[in-house]
């Protein structure tokens, strides 16, 4: 594959978090436009500045925008919601309706959320093969013990999805607090991992995604534009 390019179907599957088969069908049915033309070829290579839309929604734009947000507890990681304030409600940017979320946080979690209209960037950050580390600070209800560390490192089997989690790094920072580093993002993963010990998570805060670290001066609810050099 040419350097700097991505297959259309893979990029869409990762960005939309849809199964690849569904994405291929949608492409074949003409739901995807590439640089303003309908594209029915799932294997088409797309570049960073190819304009991609899926049913009218911008997946990747020609002028990319990268945003870092400090999500407060109680704000939903969605672009629309009937009940709760959304991460987009907190952002005032002319291209905000083009943005998608790069790795969601639960309603009652806080911390770093990245948003972009650059599907190539978001799929590189979320592709499990790239093993991009995501760092979380966790506070739990019951005292932590060293056996948590080995169980997180060994991976845990989740019968519902029939998967074993990748090795996760857990560092105990006090009796009730820990730092967790994940390289994947399964549904409610951290809560379910502590759930194995019947230890409810009371607070969960994401401090970093790869090289992007939540700055101390960015208060809950605040956002800033990232300028990326590459
Ligand atoms: N794991 C969870 O359980 N919740 C999050 O929001 C993130 C990781």
Briefly summarize what is shown.
This protein has 230 residues and is an alpha+beta fold. It has helices at 8-16, 20-28, 119-126, 146-154, 189-195, and strands at 5-7, 32-34, 37-38, 45-47, 52-54, 57-60, 66-71, 100-102, 110-116, 134-140, 157-158, 163-164, 169-172, 177-182, 201-209, 212-213, 223-225. The chain folds into two domains: 6-60, RNA-binding S4 domain (Structural Genomics Hypothetical 15.5 Kd Protein In mrcA-pckA Intergenic Region, Chain A, Roll), CATH 3.10.290; 66-225, Pseudouridine synthase (2-Layer Sandwich).
End-to-end CA span: 19 Å
Structural class: alpha+beta
Indicate the overall shape. Answer: globular
- CATH class descriptor name of the largest domain: Alpha Beta
* Unreliable segments of 5+ consecutive residues: none
Amount of helix: 10-25%
Indicate how many domains the architecture comprises. 2
CATH superfamily of the largest domain: Pseudouridine synthase
What is the count of β-strands?
Answer: 17
Do you know the CATH topology of the largest domain? Pseudouridine synthase
Strand fraction band? 25-35%
* Bound compounds: uracil
For the largest beta-sheet, the strand count, sense and barrel status come to: 9 strands, mixed
Round the mean pLDDT to the nearest integer and report it.
93
Overall radius of gyration: 19 Å
Order of helices and strands: EHHEEEEEEEEHEHEEEEHEEE
- Count of DSSP H/I helices: 5
In the CATH classification, which architecture of the largest domain applies? 2-Layer Sandwich
């Amino acid at each position: 594959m040419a350097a700097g390019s991505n297959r259309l179907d893979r990029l869409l599957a990762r960005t939309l978090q849809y199964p690849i088969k569904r994405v291929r069908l949608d492409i074949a049915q003409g739901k995807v436009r590439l640089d303003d033309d309908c594209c029915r070829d799932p294997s088409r290579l797309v570049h960073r500045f190819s304009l991609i839309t899926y049913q009218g929604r911008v997946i990747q734009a020609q002028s990319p925008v990268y945003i870092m947000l400090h999500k407060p507890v109680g704000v939903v990681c969605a672009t629309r919601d009937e009940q709760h304030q959304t991460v987009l409600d907190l952002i005032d940017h002319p291209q905000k309706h083009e943005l998608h979320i790069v790795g969601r946080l639960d309603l009652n979690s806080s911390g770093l959320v990245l948003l972009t209209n650059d599907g190539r960037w978001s799929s590189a950050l979320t592709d499990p093969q790239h093993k991009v580390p995501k760092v979380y600070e966790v506070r739990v209800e019951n005292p932590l013990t060293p056996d948590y560390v080995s169980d997180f490192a060994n991976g845990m089997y989740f019968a519902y999805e029939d998967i074993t989690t990748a090795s996760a790094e857990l560092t105990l920072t006090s009796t009730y607090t820990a730092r967790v580093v994940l390289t994947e993002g399964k549904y409610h993963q951290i809560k379910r991992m502590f759930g194995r010990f019947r230890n409810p998570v009371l607070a969960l805060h994401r401090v970093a995604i790869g090289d992007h670290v939540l700055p101390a001066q960015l208060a809950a609810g605040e956002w800033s534009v990232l300028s990326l050099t590459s």
